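Now for a sample.
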Amino acid sequence: MQLLQFTRAGSPLIATAVLLTTAGCSNSEYAADEAFRPPGKVVPIAAANLDEAQAPAVPLRADRRASGQDLGAPGALLLVDSAVVVVDASPGERPILAFHQATLERLGSFSRMGSGPGELRDPWYLAPDPRDVRAFWVLDITLQKLMQLRSDQLNQGAPPTARELSTSRVAGATAFVWSGDTTALFTGTLRDGRVATLVGSSGQVTFGGTLRGNPAVEPMFRNLAYEVRPVILGGTARVALMGMHTGDIELVDMSGAHLGFAETAHRFAPLYRPWREGERRSYVPSDSLRFGYLWGTASPRLLYGLFSGRMRLKSTRGSSFIGKWVHVFDHDGAPCARLMLDEDAIAITVDAGDTFLFASTHGENPGVVRYPLPPGLCRSVNR
């Protein structure tokens, strides 16, 4: 099987299309994974969008919102110090914005667009600094670097003292988390493994994990089909890999070694259909390609997954790469709650006390929204 290319979807956060050249293919849809299946309910291909078939959920209503001229295309977001830090993917000179957690009033911006020290060109993902509660890290997928920013660098443009680490040895990385003091774990369209770990002090890179999908397909394309968002689970050195085109959440250690699966309600594999143009034969994402967990976040007690359940071209409620269902688990993957947002979101984050959930929303009025969480959420879960 020869591999041709892949393209990115319209969302600034989600890569979806894979073209796989093949010969002698049938007209039936092809499931990229025939093994390594997590436990759970098998979803029929013809099933309606899963966001319309969920069990009862606790509805959440927003109590604060930042929108209008403050934001163009909000994406990844993170709580740092007293601020909500948000990547803005719209054209402009303000790649990362900050809002007050309590009021969502705009505080200012971090860094500026450019290619020099302290500058960003394509910020894609955010993660907290495990050593400094006032600091966070940004992954720039074009400049191939991690950059550390601090809350006291707000409105300073390109900070000349910003710490930077090259990610050129983990090409294709689209998401990351820090564990401990010096080790980062990356996921994305990696070429040499399911995950990569980078030791910041030495720059040493190690690839590991079990690749999903057809062994005949190159790793980067298998990783694209099985794209995941990593979430660090407290101080346990365990990571939850939130399946974007599957309904599963895999638990791994920092080397990528498989530890188990969360008890998710549904499971499905990425689906493709044959495509031909002249002598070119390929697989392209099927109309039935379903979106699962778009984003994940964790508190010291709980794991939260933003779930879509919608098919790529059969969604009856707009885009498939947004969702309003939030599934809540303990750190061992046992489900304990299902929440429903009052509008679609593309990314979420939560405070340490499980008091508020924040979401980036798209649509006619994109913004950052704050949701009060139910008192005593998953009260039986203790860490």
Notes: Helices lie at 219-225. The two ends are 47 Å apart (CA to CA).
